[in-house]
Amino acid sequence: MKTRHTFLLILLLVKSLFLLHAQEITLFQQFNGHYDYLAIGNTLNPEENNQNTFCQILPASQADLQMPANTTIKAAFLFWAGSGEGDLEVSLNNIPITAENVYNVNFEDDDYGTLPYFSCATNITDLITTQGNTSYELTNLDISDTLSSNPGYCANRTNFAGWSIYIIYQDNTLPLNQINLFLGLDIINRNVQEKTIIIDNLNVLDTQGAKIGFLAWEGDNALNLGETLSINNSIISNPPLNLASNAFNGTNTFTNSTSFYNADLDVYSIQNNIATGDTSATIKLTTQADLIILNNIITVLNSQLPDATIAVNQYSIPCYSKTINLDYTVYNINSTATLQEQTPIAFYANNQLIAQSTTENEIAINAFENGNISLTIPNNIPDAFTLTIVVDDIGNGDGMVIELNETNNITTENIQLIPLPEIIELNNMLNCDLGFNTAYFNITNQLELIQYEDINTIRFYEEFEDLVNNENNILNPENYSSTASPQTIYIKDDAEECYTIYQFNLITENCPPIIPEGFSPNNDNVNDWFNIQGLYDIFERHELQIYNRYGTLIFVGDNSKRWEGTANRGLNNQNKLLPVGTYFYVLNLNDSNYKIMTGWVYLNR
């Protein structure tokens, strides 16, 4: 599980009743490793303003940084805040700094109207890494126009400005910790006297060294009006600097200062306020009169867990296919423990489970594993859909690995499959039946009807599925034997990025039979029977009748009975070779396309 580190900004407004508009505190960034943090900063208030009538802000203030030995800076953030809508550009050691994150809150005062307040945050890791241990001076934080434009700030004694730097550093002698930084803007006051913040996604393995830090503005030591800070319903303090009943009193724990005017930069041990196995912590602030604006909180907890995330590297969508070839990576980057092997991965199309996989090996801290999978999209999924990939998901939304962050296991991709194009129809090919609805075609002749660039990109197929899958193409299209009539043939031209498809039918037709004028049944194996070309096994329902010159029916044949010069009708001459002479035939093809055919044939020896 992962959490974010949050800083706490607090403003006190003590005179009027206000309507409040806030930005909720949320997880901003998280660090996992042998990490800890320290903070420096200063106020621009020359003294505590609660009991004074001054209304000036200093032009600059300084703070010294001294990093512990044998440490490495991992991240640094500058925070500045004050009265007004926001001065978004300041300078640190004469280097201009622009706000990256801005938080605002407005208070509607009955006497003075809207009184806005702001805080800003910017990542300054490179600056702190470069300059290192030295004195840092903040300048150009100017709120003079704000204070002069609305007397409510000074009348309410809420004229303040100040800054702080948080540095997260690595020390290999430290335990594996999780540092969470939370940012936002939220408030309590005399009307709403308490605020509860729940920090989720924790997994406390060891309470040793656990701590929580706050940055608070407008803290006044003289205002001791029920200001408490509690963790898991236990009030925390670190006397004599921070008393249990005066949490925000202008102090700096890091320097043990009690003159951090109108600001608090404090850190507390909470190892007695949390327990091993805790997955959340409840922070509560209270006040009886003063208005407090919460802006950030930072926690340091020992937590040794993996954190699985997943990202798509690339994917390919073949033309007119329901298959996606996907390359992905499972990471264990922001973690404090190894991610186990066989961690499940689920793949969803429009929230429908379509495939599952697992990691193959253990993934070490700050390591990753690449994977690939071929996904077949079901037919009920439209061509445009959302592909969702979830690591640590057994296929129903449940995981099997306890992680630092259980909310970052998902990645999505908007997928657009390439729909099949309209198939181009070509003229049919006709040929005569050679028997049993078989004919031979040179189907390459159809290429004369289309435009193509390279014959090597042309393929012929009997089945559309084979065309799509690029398999079982016709190997001898120049002499292709049809097997049905009609039979559909597909042409695929692979020259373009997505291929072109053509289709046509092979029509096997019964051509007119060719009837000879004679034959000689003399057993010389030449012209021994009445061989009508294109009749047998083509017009399979035909009937052939043979008559002698007197009009007597002497033979009746069909597809299985051929006339070899003998009779199968009459009483005296059946199965005997008939005399030489002219005979007459009646051929009924039993085909609606043809009339009964009649004529003569000469039987010779």
Radius of gyration: 46 Å
| Gap from first CA to last CA | 103 Å
> Number of DSSP helices?
4
Spatial order of the strands in the main sheet? 1-8-9-5-11-3
Our estimate of the beta-strand percent is 35-45%
Query: Which secondary-structure class do the elements indicate?
Result: mainly beta
> How many DSSP-defined strands?
38
Proportion in helices: under 10%
Mean pLDDT level: 89
**Spans of 5+ residues with little confidence (pLDDT < 50)?**
1-21
The shape, in one word, is rod-shaped
- Major sheet: size, sense and barrel closure? 6 strands, antiparallel
Report what the structure shows.
- This protein is mainly β and 605 residues long.
- Helix content is 4%, strand content 42%.
- It is built from four helices and 38 strands.
- The strands form nine sheets. Strands 1-8-9-5-11-3 form a six-stranded antiparallel β-sheet, covered by helices on one side. A five-stranded antiparallel β-sheet has the order 2-12-19-14-17, with no helix packed on it.
- The longest helix has 7 residues, at 125-131.
- It is rod-shaped and about 145 Å long.
- The protein starts with 17 loop residues before the first strand and ends with a strand.
- Mean pLDDT is 89; it is low at 1-21.
At a glance:
This protein is mainly β and 605 residues long. The protein has 4 helices and 38 strands. It starts with 17 loop residues before the first strand and ends with a strand.
